[in-house]
Amino acid sequence: MFKGSLTALITPFKAGKVDEAAYERLIEWQITEGTHGLVPVGTTGESPTLNHEEHKEVVALCVRVAKGRVPVIAGAGSNSTAEAIDFTRHAKKVGADAVLHATGYYNKPTQEGIYQHFKAISDAVAMPIFIYNVPPRTVIDIAVATLARCAKLANVVGIKDASANVGRVTQQRLACGADFVQLSGEDATALGFMAHGGAGCISVTSNVAPRLCAQFQNACLAADWVKARALHERLMPLHDALFCESNPGPVKYAASALGLCSGELRLPLVAIAEESERKVDAALRAVGLSRLAQAAE
Asked: H/E/C letters for each residue in 14-63?
């Protein structure tokens, strides 16, 4: 059930608070456009600046709106293992289908610490767990050998790999087995990731281009690499532009430009620079996305 285009959802804000109405509209639109799954309260969802109550309510809201139509992989990570377990218990309680956990950021755990972190979560809560490897944000890279140890834990079912190293997909497949679900966490290298045996992508770009991202993943899963490459090349300017500044600044600006929600961020993130706005606007036009284009489709 965990495959295809899964959107790493932004969290809309309005006057400093979570904009629940905009969030509901975004989720409905995502499902209508063909998105295969939803991932609330990850990096793109600004989890570091949501308090615990907000975090839990956003996950619960996503599950309520999705109504089982697509799977929900709830962000539940923390640099405190005890907090990560608490978020995981809540995600299970409200009906999420799986949880997503990064290594402890800032803590810089050893490989043994990484294993013990995921083992503690797996031992505490019986629900599917995706490990999130994102070295640019956590500093620590999860070694293939460590991932193989984690793959043997009772509830660890897969990985979101944002290392941008597509060679790791094959290495991890050989170490963890063909049933271990590998999801890309990096839009720009998703084509290579899928060709190496990936099952899908937890995507930032699909916040604003869900239909195209879903079509791209459908082509990959059908091994139609000619169509997949054409869609990937169409989306590439947007993949690039949405990371011209720290995520989710650019994608929130893009969402606001498309009328999906406000571009409001929480400090220490700030609105992107005018030059970056121009890059995102140009990419939206290049891909064929605009208010008018959305309406016409």
From this structure: ECCEECHHHHHHHHHHHHHCCCCEEECCCCCCCHHHCCHHHHHHHHHHHH
